[in-house]
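Forum > Structural Biology > Help requests

Title: Can anyone predict the 3D structure of TonB-dependent receptor?

Hi all, first post here. I have the sequence for TonB-dependent receptor but no way to get a structure on my laptop. I'd be grateful if someone could post the structure tokens.
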Amino acid sequence: MNKNNYLATLALVPICFSVSPVVTAQATAGQEEEELVLEVTSPRLVRDLYETPAAVSVVNAPDIREGQQRLQLDESLDTVPGLFFQNRYNFAQNLRLSTRGFGARAPFGIRGIRIQVDGIPYTLPDGQSQIDAIDLDSAQRIEVIRGPASVQYGNAAGGVIDISTAPGDELPAGGRLRLDGGSDDYRKAAIQGNGVDGDTSGIATLSWLTFDGHREQSEAEKALFNARVARDLESGRRLTATFNALHNPKSEDPGGLTLAQAEEDPEQATALAKRLDSSQTVNQQTLGVRWEDSVVLPGQLTLDTFYTQRDFAQQLPFPGSSRIAYDRHFYGISSQYQQESMLAGLPLVWVTGLDAHHQSDDRRRYSVSIDGDITGQTQAENQSATNVAVFGQGDLALSDVLNISLGVRFDRLHMAIDDEWLQDGSDDSGNRTFREYSGVAGISYKLAPRHQVYATLGTAFESPTFTEFANPNGGGFNPELEPQQALNRELGMRGMLGAGLSYDMALFSIQVEDEILPFNVGDQTFYENAGETRRNGFELGLAWELSYAWRVTSALTLADYELRDFADEQGNDASGNAIPGLPEQLWVNELEWRGTGGRFAALEWQYVGEFYAENSNQTLVSDYWLAGLRAGDSIRMAYQTLNLYAGIRNLLDQDYFSNVRINANANRPVEDRGYFEPGPGRTFYAGLEWVF
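Reply #1:
Sure, ran it for you. Structure tokens for TonB-dependent receptor below:
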């Protein structure tokens, strides 16, 4: 097998679902075994996987695309250990993701985890992430760092999800047209084209989605456009421009049900959600430019600059001050320089860089009557956040098998509110500045060329968001709220047994001080540094190539998440309670078959353990099993291909909750709290893709 064919095979059949960052392969004639060079890029310091002292997982194009709807990230990442997804079917609230306990408290979206696409951050300086503009039809590779990544990216206590879209020169020139349909009036169309002209290459993808949803008041419409153009100016220099646009004219929100309502009719929306037509609209455009240069300096210099504009409006599913809107401008520059050097006669690979990002939101809020009429304006303010940071990290090879890694970062985060609505008699203007250091130390030891053990000690911080800064005493920022601080200890091992079995395991212990948690004053939610949490766990990923045709993948997470030294939402002592929203057992398995001519079939089943819905641990959410099946075939016609595929989700038609609104409605009796969003029963989808 020649080198090019070998690389193509590796791209289609990952060595291990969670340890599959195969980028290059080196082989020489006469070698009994190919020597693999596995690299990971998302931690900024590009390095051999078996020298990386961190839990890193990679998903390649086939697992992102093949037979998938490509609606949300959970389709691609559910076989990565340590990740827990909720809220897949409510497009107004969007996908919620937590890893090792970080992100669980977010009422919507993603919190405490860094998200970026092609070097462009989708995480704001205050730590919030919106991922509704991520185009999985364009995604080529997803890398996941589990555990603190603050040294590389700052306000990211839970880790990093780094998404790379396909460059135009890495695919055969041509195009593809894809049409999907399924249950609940699911319809999706996508068209993609790419090509190369001399030193210039380009690729563009356009998709349109409509979906009625399995519950009342769940309709969604969304269009995405993603384009990437690159030009090689000379050997060692490359300029890449990326443009992404989101048009989301409607995403309805059915609201959270009480347990009695969910049992009576899981497809209903709340009466207020229907009466107020709770929904959101979003328009967003992002432009990014990357400069890569290995000529001007001895190493590799990368500069990324970006600008994002977002218009957002939403009616929440209750009356009062519940209609919100904002215009956002988010822009910045990131730089990094990596070089190989010698230190005391030992090889050193190091990286240093600077990040400068700014966010400005012009926000309005309006009061709405129970009939849905706007009765007045209650808020007009500008929220701005500026983050400037410097970082450095290096890997020193003490021997051929032993490496140590050290890194440090300094962040200066300034957050300010300029209150432009003074008719209410108060000025809520204010500002806070945080200066945070993050550090990491790791050691990696190769037991064999394809077996590694590592240990890491790292610190991380997670700042309050603008929403969390609300002052219960009125008047600007809450002066007592501080960033939460995390200390992460991790011990891991990864490797390959023979030619067919890959493993990736990690033990982690995380202590978080000044945990930011919500409390209620009447109907309003505020936040405080309520105490400490302890998070201990074990993650195991296995991938077994039983034969050329059969593969088994398994991801197991066992964890213990505990609240310490603080009161619950009702003021009672909650020490020793479980952190809400986090199952302590997660197990995902997939059996995949690949035949000749593009045929495939995959059976997936997952177990989600029970967890609590609030800090007081009064409401236990039951565990559940879900199974899914997808299959497809290809018909080749000269230089064109027709791909056919279909899938069934929730194969056994199980009752379960796809989302639980953690700590919601804490001012109500437990039985009247709208925690629950029931998941759909058995659903079907099918589609075809014409590759030309």
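The chain has one domain: 39-691. The mean pLDDT is 88.
Shout if anything looks off.
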